[in-house]
Design brief:
six-stranded mixed β-sheet; 34% helix; alpha+beta; globular
């Protein structure tokens, strides 16, 4: 089992991936903004695409009432599950009070960049 931190962005737009790779899955605590918390959970399980080409993921989402953290949590979980072939659990809690649409776009971008770094680290570990 391996645990590591990945930080992407700065100040209010900083996103942290606290990641644990187990022999049979990846667990991520995805937090950031000005107030980290638990806003919801997402579980993605990889499977073959219905087209027969590539990989997809079955995904379950549990939001905390009134929170939208799971929107980006879902995107992160599906992306990492598809790229690694691992079951991925994401607990997401990202908040900026009175966030603008620009703030949200920066947070989404940072989440996707972090997800790519998690995949890269996972794949490099598998090669090693």
């Amino acid at each position: 089992m391996e645990t590591f931190l990945i930080n992407v962005g700065q100040d209010n737009h900083r996103i942290q991936f606290s990641t644990t790779i187990t022999p049979n899955g990846i667990s991520i605590l995805l937090t950031g903004g000005t107030s980290s918390h638990v806003g919801g959970m997402v579980l993605s399980v990889p499977r073959l695409s219905l087209t027969g080409q590539g990989r997809s993921a079955d995904t379950w989402i549990i939001p905390v009432a009134g929170h939208k953290d799971v929107i980006v949590g879902e995107q992160v979980a599906i992306f990492i599950s598809q790229k690694t072939g691992q079951t991925v659990a994401v607990t997401a809690g990202i908040h900026i009070e009175n966030a603008t649409s620009e703030d949200l776009e920066i947070l989404k971008k940072n989440c996707f960049e972090g997800a790519k770094l998690v995949v890269e680290k996972y794949l490099n570990k598998q090669k090693g």
